[in-house]
Design goal:
InterPro entries: LRR_dom_sf
Number of strands: 14
Protein name: F-box domain-containing protein
Shape: globular
Largest sheet: 14 strands, parallel
Distance between the termini: 45 Å
Organism: Rhizophagus clarus
Structural class: alpha/beta
Helix content: 25-40%
Amino acid sequence: MVNKLWCETVIPILWKNPWRYDIDYHNKIYLFIIIASCLPDDIKEFLASQEILLPSVSHQSLLYDYLSFCRSINIDVLNSIISIGSRDLYDQFLLQQEFYHLLMRKCPGLNSLDLGSINHQIFYFPEAKTNLESLCELRCDTSIEPSYFYGLSRFCQYIQRLIIINKYVKVNRGMVKFIEIQRNLKYFEWKDNVDYFEDYNFIENPYEEIILALAKKAEVLNHLIITFIDYHEYTFLQNVLTKLYKLKSLKINNFFINFSDNQLKKLIYHELEIFNIDCISLNSISNIIGNSGGYLKKIIFKYYDYYLCDHENKFYEDSLIFIQKIYKNCPLIEYLSLAFSSSTEHFKEFEKLLNICQNLKSLLIMIPNTTNNEETGKELLNILIRSAPINLREIRFFDYFQFSLKNLEEFLEKWRGRPAISIRSYDPIYKSDPYMKLIIKYKIDGVIKDFKHDSVYF
Protein backbone atom coordinates (compact mmCIF):
# COMPACT_ATOMS: atom_id res chain seq x y z
CA MET A 1 0.00 0.00 0.00
CA VAL A 2 3.06 2.32 0.08
CA ASN A 3 5.77 0.97 -2.21
CA LYS A 4 7.79 -2.16 -2.76
CA LEU A 5 10.90 -1.00 -0.87
CA TRP A 6 8.85 0.09 2.17
CA CYS A 7 7.00 -3.22 2.13
CA GLU A 8 10.15 -5.32 1.86
CA THR A 9 11.67 -3.40 4.79
CA VAL A 10 8.68 -3.39 7.13
CA ILE A 11 7.20 -6.88 6.68
CA PRO A 12 10.17 -8.66 8.34
CA ILE A 13 9.98 -6.20 11.26
CA LEU A 14 6.24 -6.65 11.79
CA TRP A 15 6.45 -10.41 11.55
CA LYS A 16 9.47 -10.83 13.80
CA ASN A 17 7.02 -10.98 16.71
CA PRO A 18 3.50 -10.74 15.25
CA TRP A 19 1.83 -11.68 18.58
CA ARG A 20 2.97 -8.66 20.57
CA TYR A 21 0.50 -6.04 19.37
CA ASP A 22 -2.41 -4.65 21.37
CA ILE A 23 -5.17 -5.99 19.12
CA ASP A 24 -8.01 -8.50 19.37
CA TYR A 25 -6.45 -11.54 17.73
CA HIS A 26 -9.72 -13.45 18.01
CA ASN A 27 -11.12 -11.25 15.23
CA LYS A 28 -8.10 -11.35 12.93
CA ILE A 29 -9.32 -13.95 10.45
CA TYR A 30 -6.69 -12.98 7.91
CA LEU A 31 -3.94 -14.05 10.31
CA PHE A 32 -5.66 -17.42 10.52
CA ILE A 33 -5.86 -17.58 6.72
CA ILE A 34 -2.17 -16.72 6.27
CA ILE A 35 -0.98 -19.34 8.75
CA ALA A 36 -3.38 -22.00 7.49
CA SER A 37 -2.30 -21.39 3.88
CA CYS A 38 1.27 -22.32 4.82
CA LEU A 39 0.28 -25.82 5.98
CA PRO A 40 1.52 -28.65 3.73
CA ASP A 41 -1.06 -30.16 1.37
CA ASP A 42 -1.09 -33.52 3.18
CA ILE A 43 -1.94 -31.77 6.46
CA LYS A 44 -4.71 -29.81 4.77
CA GLU A 45 -6.09 -33.07 3.41
CA PHE A 46 -5.91 -34.66 6.85
CA LEU A 47 -7.78 -31.74 8.42
CA ALA A 48 -10.35 -31.88 5.64
CA SER A 49 -10.86 -35.59 6.42
CA GLN A 50 -11.69 -34.49 9.97
CA GLU A 51 -14.26 -32.08 8.51
CA ILE A 52 -12.12 -29.03 9.33
CA LEU A 53 -12.37 -26.74 6.33
CA LEU A 54 -9.60 -24.20 5.90
CA PRO A 55 -10.13 -20.96 3.95
CA SER A 56 -7.74 -20.25 1.11
CA VAL A 57 -5.99 -17.03 0.16
CA SER A 58 -8.02 -15.29 -2.51
CA HIS A 59 -6.80 -13.65 -5.71
CA GLN A 60 -3.16 -14.76 -5.64
CA SER A 61 -0.56 -16.60 -3.63
CA LEU A 62 1.12 -14.89 -0.68
CA LEU A 63 3.75 -12.31 -1.59
CA TYR A 64 5.98 -13.31 1.32
CA ASP A 65 6.82 -16.35 3.34
CA TYR A 66 5.66 -14.45 6.44
CA LEU A 67 6.33 -17.13 9.01
CA SER A 68 9.98 -17.38 7.99
CA PHE A 69 10.50 -13.94 9.55
CA CYS A 70 9.00 -15.00 12.87
CA ARG A 71 11.36 -15.37 15.84
CA SER A 72 8.73 -15.64 18.56
CA ILE A 73 5.79 -17.92 19.43
CA ASN A 74 2.98 -17.01 21.82
CA ILE A 75 0.76 -20.02 22.48
CA ASP A 76 -2.22 -18.18 23.99
CA VAL A 77 -2.37 -15.71 21.08
CA LEU A 78 -2.07 -18.58 18.61
CA ASN A 79 -4.91 -20.41 20.37
CA SER A 80 -7.03 -17.28 20.07
CA ILE A 81 -6.37 -17.15 16.32
CA ILE A 82 -6.96 -20.90 15.96
CA SER A 83 -10.37 -20.59 17.62
CA ILE A 84 -11.46 -18.61 14.53
CA GLY A 85 -11.21 -21.85 12.53
CA SER A 86 -13.56 -23.85 14.74
CA ARG A 87 -15.46 -23.67 18.03
CA ASP A 88 -15.20 -27.42 18.56
CA LEU A 89 -12.56 -28.20 21.19
CA TYR A 90 -11.37 -31.36 19.45
CA ASP A 91 -10.97 -29.49 16.16
CA GLN A 92 -9.03 -26.78 17.97
CA PHE A 93 -6.79 -29.43 19.50
CA LEU A 94 -5.94 -30.79 16.02
CA LEU A 95 -5.39 -27.29 14.60
CA GLN A 96 -3.13 -26.39 17.51
CA GLN A 97 -1.00 -29.48 16.87
CA GLU A 98 -0.52 -28.60 13.20
CA PHE A 99 -0.08 -24.84 13.69
CA TYR A 100 2.55 -25.35 16.40
CA HIS A 101 4.38 -27.89 14.26
CA LEU A 102 4.26 -25.52 11.29
CA LEU A 103 5.76 -22.68 13.28
CA MET A 104 8.52 -24.89 14.64
CA ARG A 105 9.43 -25.72 11.05
CA LYS A 106 9.05 -22.24 9.61
CA CYS A 107 10.63 -20.14 12.39
CA PRO A 108 14.39 -20.72 12.28
CA GLY A 109 16.43 -19.40 15.17
CA LEU A 110 13.52 -19.03 17.59
CA ASN A 111 14.30 -16.40 20.25
CA SER A 112 11.19 -16.18 22.41
CA LEU A 113 8.50 -18.67 23.47
CA ASP A 114 5.43 -17.96 25.60
CA LEU A 115 4.00 -21.34 26.55
CA GLY A 116 0.75 -20.00 28.05
CA SER A 117 -1.77 -22.81 28.47
CA ILE A 118 -0.10 -25.27 26.11
CA ASN A 119 -1.51 -28.79 25.65
CA HIS A 120 1.02 -30.20 23.19
CA GLN A 121 4.50 -31.53 23.81
CA ILE A 122 6.29 -29.47 21.20
CA PHE A 123 9.70 -30.80 22.28
CA TYR A 124 8.82 -34.06 20.48
CA PHE A 125 8.54 -32.31 17.09
CA PRO A 126 11.47 -33.27 14.79
CA GLU A 127 12.56 -29.62 14.53
CA ALA A 128 12.38 -29.01 18.28
CA LYS A 129 16.05 -29.57 19.03
CA THR A 130 17.32 -26.88 16.66
CA ASN A 131 14.72 -24.29 17.63
CA LEU A 132 14.64 -24.87 21.36
CA GLU A 133 18.42 -24.86 21.66
CA SER A 134 18.47 -21.30 20.30
CA LEU A 135 15.72 -20.10 22.66
CA CYS A 136 16.71 -17.02 24.71
CA GLU A 137 13.43 -16.12 26.45
CA LEU A 138 10.77 -18.39 27.96
CA ARG A 139 7.48 -17.34 29.56
CA CYS A 140 5.43 -19.99 31.33
CA ASP A 141 3.25 -20.68 34.36
CA THR A 142 3.41 -23.20 37.18
CA SER A 143 0.14 -24.92 36.21
CA ILE A 144 2.04 -26.73 33.43
CA GLU A 145 2.82 -30.32 34.41
CA PRO A 146 6.31 -30.89 35.89
CA SER A 147 6.97 -33.55 33.23
CA TYR A 148 6.63 -30.87 30.55
CA PHE A 149 9.63 -29.02 31.97
CA TYR A 150 11.59 -32.28 32.07
CA GLY A 151 10.95 -32.55 28.32
CA LEU A 152 12.01 -28.95 27.66
CA SER A 153 15.16 -29.50 29.71
CA ARG A 154 16.51 -31.85 27.03
CA PHE A 155 17.08 -28.91 24.66
CA CYS A 156 16.48 -25.60 26.51
CA GLN A 157 19.63 -25.10 28.54
CA TYR A 158 20.69 -21.62 27.49
CA ILE A 159 17.65 -19.55 28.45
CA GLN A 160 18.68 -15.98 29.31
CA ARG A 161 15.27 -14.60 30.34
CA LEU A 162 12.81 -16.72 32.34
CA ILE A 163 9.42 -15.23 33.31
CA ILE A 164 7.13 -17.37 35.48
CA ILE A 165 3.49 -16.71 36.42
CA ASN A 166 2.62 -18.65 39.56
CA LYS A 167 -0.86 -20.21 39.37
CA TYR A 168 -0.34 -23.20 41.60
CA VAL A 169 -0.24 -23.86 45.34
CA LYS A 170 2.46 -26.52 45.26
CA VAL A 171 6.08 -26.61 44.26
CA ASN A 172 6.53 -27.42 40.57
CA ARG A 173 9.63 -29.58 40.79
CA GLY A 174 9.88 -29.89 37.03
CA MET A 175 10.35 -26.13 36.95
CA VAL A 176 12.93 -26.34 39.75
CA LYS A 177 14.91 -28.83 37.68
CA PHE A 178 14.54 -26.65 34.58
CA ILE A 179 16.08 -23.70 36.44
CA GLU A 180 18.92 -25.85 37.77
CA ILE A 181 20.05 -27.00 34.32
CA GLN A 182 20.19 -23.47 32.84
CA ARG A 183 23.71 -22.37 31.99
CA ASN A 184 23.24 -18.68 31.15
CA LEU A 185 20.22 -17.43 33.12
CA LYS A 186 20.62 -13.64 33.33
CA TYR A 187 17.05 -12.50 34.05
CA PHE A 188 14.52 -14.19 36.34
CA GLU A 189 11.01 -12.91 37.06
CA TRP A 190 8.37 -14.54 39.28
CA LYS A 191 4.85 -13.15 39.64
CA ASP A 192 2.05 -14.60 41.75
CA ASN A 193 -1.32 -14.52 39.99
CA VAL A 194 -3.76 -13.06 42.52
CA ASP A 195 -6.86 -14.52 40.85
CA TYR A 196 -5.62 -18.06 41.37
CA PHE A 197 -4.72 -17.65 45.05
CA GLU A 198 -7.83 -16.07 46.58
CA ASP A 199 -9.45 -19.32 47.69
CA TYR A 200 -6.36 -21.46 48.28
CA ASN A 201 -4.46 -22.46 51.37
CA PHE A 202 -0.88 -23.40 50.64
CA ILE A 203 0.00 -26.99 51.49
CA GLU A 204 3.70 -26.28 51.15
CA ASN A 205 5.89 -23.28 50.48
CA PRO A 206 5.73 -22.83 46.67
CA TYR A 207 8.71 -20.47 46.59
CA GLU A 208 11.60 -21.90 48.56
CA GLU A 209 12.89 -24.58 46.17
CA ILE A 210 12.61 -22.21 43.20
CA ILE A 211 14.57 -19.45 44.94
CA LEU A 212 17.19 -21.87 46.25
CA ALA A 213 17.71 -23.10 42.68
CA LEU A 214 18.52 -19.51 41.70
CA ALA A 215 21.35 -19.42 44.24
CA LYS A 216 23.24 -21.77 41.92
CA LYS A 217 23.09 -19.12 39.17
CA ALA A 218 25.03 -16.49 41.10
CA GLU A 219 27.80 -16.41 38.47
CA VAL A 220 25.45 -15.25 35.69
CA LEU A 221 22.19 -13.88 37.19
CA ASN A 222 21.94 -10.09 36.68
CA HIS A 223 18.24 -9.34 37.14
CA LEU A 224 15.84 -10.62 39.83
CA ILE A 225 12.18 -9.49 39.89
CA ILE A 226 9.83 -11.16 42.40
CA THR A 227 6.20 -10.52 43.35
CA PHE A 228 4.91 -12.70 46.20
CA ILE A 229 1.37 -12.22 47.51
CA ASP A 230 1.29 -14.90 50.18
CA TYR A 231 2.76 -14.95 53.66
CA HIS A 232 5.53 -17.45 54.35
CA GLU A 233 8.78 -17.60 56.22
CA TYR A 234 11.19 -15.88 53.83
CA THR A 235 14.51 -16.46 55.58
CA PHE A 236 15.60 -18.54 52.58
CA LEU A 237 15.16 -15.50 50.30
CA GLN A 238 17.42 -13.33 52.43
CA ASN A 239 20.07 -16.06 52.45
CA VAL A 240 19.94 -16.40 48.66
CA LEU A 241 20.16 -12.62 48.14
CA THR A 242 23.51 -12.55 49.90
CA LYS A 243 24.88 -14.92 47.25
CA LEU A 244 23.64 -13.18 44.09
CA TYR A 245 26.57 -10.80 43.94
CA LYS A 246 26.28 -9.97 40.21
CA LEU A 247 22.80 -8.46 40.34
CA LYS A 248 22.21 -5.31 38.30
CA SER A 249 18.52 -5.01 39.17
CA LEU A 250 16.66 -6.24 42.25
CA LYS A 251 12.91 -5.79 42.64
CA ILE A 252 10.85 -7.51 45.35
CA ASN A 253 7.16 -6.75 45.96
CA ASN A 254 5.72 -8.28 49.11
CA PHE A 255 4.47 -6.59 52.25
CA PHE A 256 4.83 -9.77 54.31
CA ILE A 257 8.59 -9.95 53.98
CA ASN A 258 10.37 -8.42 56.95
CA PHE A 259 13.99 -8.20 55.94
CA SER A 260 16.51 -8.48 58.73
CA ASP A 261 18.88 -5.52 58.91
CA ASN A 262 21.73 -7.87 59.76
CA GLN A 263 21.05 -9.92 56.63
CA LEU A 264 20.65 -6.87 54.41
CA LYS A 265 23.97 -5.48 55.58
CA LYS A 266 25.55 -8.50 53.89
CA LEU A 267 24.14 -7.58 50.48
CA ILE A 268 27.08 -6.39 48.41
CA TYR A 269 26.20 -5.59 44.80
CA HIS A 270 29.00 -3.75 43.03
CA GLU A 271 27.10 -3.73 39.71
CA LEU A 272 23.61 -2.84 41.02
CA GLU A 273 21.68 -0.29 38.90
CA ILE A 274 18.04 -0.77 39.97
CA PHE A 275 16.88 -1.32 43.54
CA ASN A 276 13.18 -1.66 44.42
CA ILE A 277 12.03 -3.44 47.60
CA ASP A 278 8.82 -3.00 49.61
CA CYS A 279 8.92 -2.62 53.39
CA ILE A 280 12.58 -2.03 54.05
CA SER A 281 14.13 0.35 56.55
CA LEU A 282 16.04 3.47 55.52
CA ASN A 283 18.99 2.18 57.50
CA SER A 284 19.04 -1.04 55.44
CA ILE A 285 18.81 0.85 52.15
CA SER A 286 21.68 3.10 53.25
CA ASN A 287 23.82 0.05 53.95
CA ILE A 288 23.05 -1.44 50.53
CA ILE A 289 23.85 1.87 48.82
CA GLY A 290 27.13 2.05 50.73
CA ASN A 291 28.01 -1.46 49.50
CA SER A 292 27.12 -0.72 45.87
CA GLY A 293 29.60 0.14 43.15
CA GLY A 294 28.33 3.61 42.25
CA TYR A 295 26.16 2.48 39.31
CA LEU A 296 22.72 2.86 40.91
CA LYS A 297 20.23 4.59 38.61
CA LYS A 298 16.93 3.75 40.31
CA ILE A 299 16.07 3.47 44.01
CA ILE A 300 12.38 2.88 44.71
CA PHE A 301 10.74 1.78 47.95
CA LYS A 302 7.48 2.35 49.84
CA TYR A 303 7.06 4.59 52.85
CA TYR A 304 3.82 3.48 54.45
CA ASP A 305 5.03 2.89 58.00
CA TYR A 306 8.16 4.99 58.32
CA TYR A 307 6.69 8.04 59.95
CA LEU A 308 4.36 5.88 62.11
CA CYS A 309 7.26 3.86 63.50
CA ASP A 310 9.72 6.63 64.26
CA HIS A 311 10.88 5.15 67.55
CA GLU A 312 13.70 6.90 69.40
CA ASN A 313 13.80 9.57 66.71
CA LYS A 314 15.47 7.12 64.30
CA PHE A 315 13.64 8.47 61.28
CA TYR A 316 15.32 11.86 61.75
CA GLU A 317 18.79 10.33 61.90
CA ASP A 318 18.26 7.54 59.35
CA SER A 319 16.72 9.82 56.72
CA LEU A 320 19.63 12.27 57.04
CA ILE A 321 22.16 9.48 56.57
CA PHE A 322 20.11 8.15 53.65
CA ILE A 323 20.28 11.46 51.75
CA GLN A 324 24.03 11.66 52.34
CA LYS A 325 24.52 8.08 51.12
CA ILE A 326 22.73 8.98 47.89
CA TYR A 327 24.83 11.98 46.91
CA LYS A 328 28.08 10.31 47.99
CA ASN A 329 27.50 6.94 46.29
CA CYS A 330 24.96 7.44 43.48
CA PRO A 331 26.23 10.01 40.96
CA LEU A 332 24.24 8.33 38.16
CA ILE A 333 20.87 8.21 39.96
CA GLU A 334 17.86 8.92 37.70
CA TYR A 335 14.79 7.69 39.62
CA LEU A 336 14.71 8.22 43.37
CA SER A 337 12.35 7.81 46.32
CA LEU A 338 13.16 10.09 49.24
CA ALA A 339 11.78 10.14 52.78
CA PHE A 340 13.11 12.77 55.17
CA SER A 341 12.28 15.17 57.97
CA SER A 342 11.38 18.83 57.39
CA SER A 343 14.30 20.15 59.46
CA THR A 344 16.67 22.81 58.19
CA GLU A 345 19.49 20.26 58.24
CA HIS A 346 17.53 17.84 56.05
CA PHE A 347 16.59 20.54 53.54
CA LYS A 348 20.23 21.57 53.32
CA GLU A 349 21.31 18.01 52.56
CA PHE A 350 18.42 17.59 50.10
CA GLU A 351 19.57 20.64 48.14
CA LYS A 352 23.11 19.29 48.12
CA LEU A 353 21.78 16.06 46.64
CA LEU A 354 20.01 17.97 43.85
CA ASN A 355 23.19 19.87 42.98
CA ILE A 356 25.32 16.72 42.82
CA CYS A 357 22.91 14.22 41.19
CA GLN A 358 22.52 15.94 37.84
CA ASN A 359 21.07 12.89 36.03
CA LEU A 360 17.93 12.88 38.21
CA LYS A 361 14.77 12.49 36.09
CA SER A 362 12.06 11.44 38.55
CA LEU A 363 11.76 12.26 42.25
CA LEU A 364 9.26 10.90 44.78
CA ILE A 365 9.20 12.91 48.02
CA MET A 366 7.68 12.06 51.39
CA ILE A 367 8.03 14.45 54.30
CA PRO A 368 5.97 13.37 57.35
CA ASN A 369 3.60 15.70 59.19
CA THR A 370 3.45 18.39 56.50
CA THR A 371 -0.34 18.68 56.13
CA ASN A 372 -1.18 22.36 55.90
CA ASN A 373 2.40 23.30 56.76
CA GLU A 374 2.75 26.21 54.39
CA GLU A 375 6.34 27.10 55.30
CA THR A 376 7.61 23.56 54.72
CA GLY A 377 5.95 23.45 51.30
CA LYS A 378 7.28 26.86 50.36
CA GLU A 379 10.84 25.96 51.35
CA LEU A 380 10.68 22.69 49.39
CA LEU A 381 9.47 24.45 46.24
CA ASN A 382 12.14 27.14 46.57
CA ILE A 383 14.85 24.48 46.78
CA LEU A 384 13.49 22.79 43.67
CA ILE A 385 13.52 26.08 41.78
CA ARG A 386 17.09 26.87 42.87
CA SER A 387 18.70 23.47 42.48
CA ALA A 388 16.58 20.93 40.55
CA PRO A 389 18.69 19.28 37.82
CA ILE A 390 17.82 20.26 34.27
CA ASN A 391 16.95 16.61 33.53
CA LEU A 392 14.20 16.50 36.17
CA ARG A 393 10.91 15.73 34.42
CA GLU A 394 8.68 14.30 37.17
CA ILE A 395 8.00 15.11 40.83
CA ARG A 396 5.70 12.92 42.94
CA PHE A 397 4.49 13.92 46.39
CA PHE A 398 3.55 11.08 48.69
CA ASP A 399 0.62 11.13 51.13
CA TYR A 400 -1.49 14.23 51.86
CA PHE A 401 1.12 16.72 50.77
CA GLN A 402 -0.42 20.18 50.25
CA PHE A 403 0.95 23.38 48.79
CA SER A 404 -0.93 26.62 49.15
CA LEU A 405 -2.38 27.97 45.92
CA LYS A 406 -0.08 30.99 46.15
CA ASN A 407 3.11 28.97 46.68
CA LEU A 408 2.26 26.55 43.88
CA GLU A 409 1.60 29.39 41.47
CA GLU A 410 4.91 31.06 42.35
CA PHE A 411 6.72 27.76 41.79
CA LEU A 412 5.13 27.20 38.38
CA GLU A 413 5.83 30.74 37.30
CA LYS A 414 9.51 30.38 38.22
CA TRP A 415 9.63 26.98 36.48
CA ARG A 416 8.64 28.70 33.22
CA GLY A 417 11.38 28.33 30.61
CA ARG A 418 12.49 24.91 31.85
CA PRO A 419 11.33 21.61 30.30
CA ALA A 420 7.68 20.90 31.17
CA ILE A 421 7.24 19.06 34.48
CA SER A 422 4.90 16.18 35.39
CA ILE A 423 3.47 16.29 38.93
CA ARG A 424 1.65 13.57 40.86
CA SER A 425 -0.02 13.81 44.24
CA TYR A 426 -2.32 11.78 46.46
CA ASP A 427 -4.00 14.79 48.10
CA PRO A 428 -7.53 15.48 46.75
CA ILE A 429 -7.13 19.23 47.25
CA TYR A 430 -5.63 19.45 43.76
CA LYS A 431 -8.96 18.40 42.25
CA SER A 432 -10.72 21.48 43.64
CA ASP A 433 -11.70 24.25 41.23
CA PRO A 434 -9.05 26.85 42.20
CA TYR A 435 -6.22 24.35 41.78
CA MET A 436 -7.67 22.88 38.59
CA LYS A 437 -7.87 26.33 36.99
CA LEU A 438 -4.25 26.99 37.93
CA ILE A 439 -3.09 23.62 36.61
CA ILE A 440 -4.96 24.05 33.32
CA LYS A 441 -3.47 27.53 32.86
CA TYR A 442 0.10 26.27 33.21
CA LYS A 443 -0.60 23.23 31.06
CA ILE A 444 -1.68 25.55 28.26
CA ASP A 445 1.48 27.61 28.80
CA GLY A 446 3.64 24.48 28.51
CA VAL A 447 4.98 24.66 32.08
CA ILE A 448 3.14 21.53 33.25
CA LYS A 449 3.26 18.46 31.07
CA ASP A 450 0.87 16.48 33.25
CA PHE A 451 -0.70 16.75 36.70
CA LYS A 452 -2.16 13.51 38.07
CA HIS A 453 -4.11 12.91 41.22
CA ASP A 454 -3.62 9.33 42.39
CA SER A 455 -6.53 7.75 44.25
CA VAL A 456 -4.22 5.18 45.86
CA TYR A 457 -0.69 5.28 47.22
CA PHE A 458 2.03 4.85 44.65
